[in-house]
Amino acid sequence: MGSAVRKVTRRPLSLASLDLNLLVFLRELLRERNVTRAAERVGVSQPTASAALSRLRRHFDDQLLIRSRGSYVLSPLAAQLAGQVEPLCASLERLFATTPGFDPESSEREFTLLMPDYVLAAYGEQLSAAMYAAAPNIRMHVRVVRERLPADIPEALRVIDAMICAAKPELHAPGINSLELFRDRWVCVVSADNPVGDRLELSDLERLPWVVPHHPDGGYPATSPLGPLMARLSTRPRVAVRVDSYQATPYFIAGTDRIAVMQRRLTRYLAGRSDLRILECPGDPPPIVEIMWWDERKEHDEAHRWLRQVARQAARRSEGP
Question: For the HTH lysR-type domain, which residue ranges apply (predicted)?
C-alpha cells in the first residue's frame, strides 16, 4: 500500500444502511490511535471493538492504524478521515440534542474557525474575550491558515463554522455568505538606523530588499494581499527573507537595510522597540478588509447567528487601524 492517500470512488450509501455506532467508534479510534482505549471510551468490550475495526477496514479498504516503532500511527487515509469525522459527529450531536434552542450561558458547543495568523494576532484576543464574557462554557477550535486557503473552500465551510480572511475570488461563490468584521491598512517597517527618510517613495520599495510573509518561490502572485501595491512598482521587489508568518516579519528588519510592508494592527506589538521605525506606505495601497465567511446552510442556525453577532461586537470594540 503506497503512502499517498487513495481517492476511493464509491456508490452513494443509503443513510438507513449505515451503522452510526461505527461512526462513534471511528472517532474515538482516530483520537486514541489504540483499539483498547477506543473501546473504553465508547464503552464496549475488546472483541466488539476489534470487530468494529475489522468492519471499518473492510469498508474503507485501508488499515487505518499502522504499527510503527511499538505504537500505532494513522494511515494517510485515516488522517484525512480524522479531519472529517470530528465536525460530522459534532453536527450529529447538535442535531439530536434534547435541549431546545441555544442558550449561550449554558451551552458547551464548540465552534471551529479558520483564519490566517494575522487575523489571529489582530483580532483573536478580542474575539476570545467577547465569547468568554457571553458564554464561558463555549469551546473554540481555531485552525490557523499557514500558507494558503483550502483548495475546496465550499467543502471546508461545510464542515467548519466560519472562515475569517480577506476576500478572494473563490469566496464569492453561490452558497457562501459573508460579514465584514474589521479594516486595517498597510504600513512599512524599517530599522531605526536605516538612512531612508521619514516619507517613503515607491522608489524606496523598489531598491530596498524586502522581508515578505507567505511568499511563493518564483514570484509574488497578483491575487496576494499586496498585489495592488506590487502592480504600482516598476520592478519586482528584491526579496531577501521569506517567512511563513506575518507576525515573524519584523524579526528580520532591525540592524539591516531591509523593509517590510505589514498590517498596522500588528505594529502594536512593536511598541517600545527603539530599533525599528514605522512609516506610512507609499503608493496608496487599498485597505485591508477582513470578512467572516460561512456556508449559507448555517444562516438560520440559532447558535451560528449568535456567533456572528459576537464576532461583530468584538470587531467593533477592537482597536482601530
Answer: 18-75
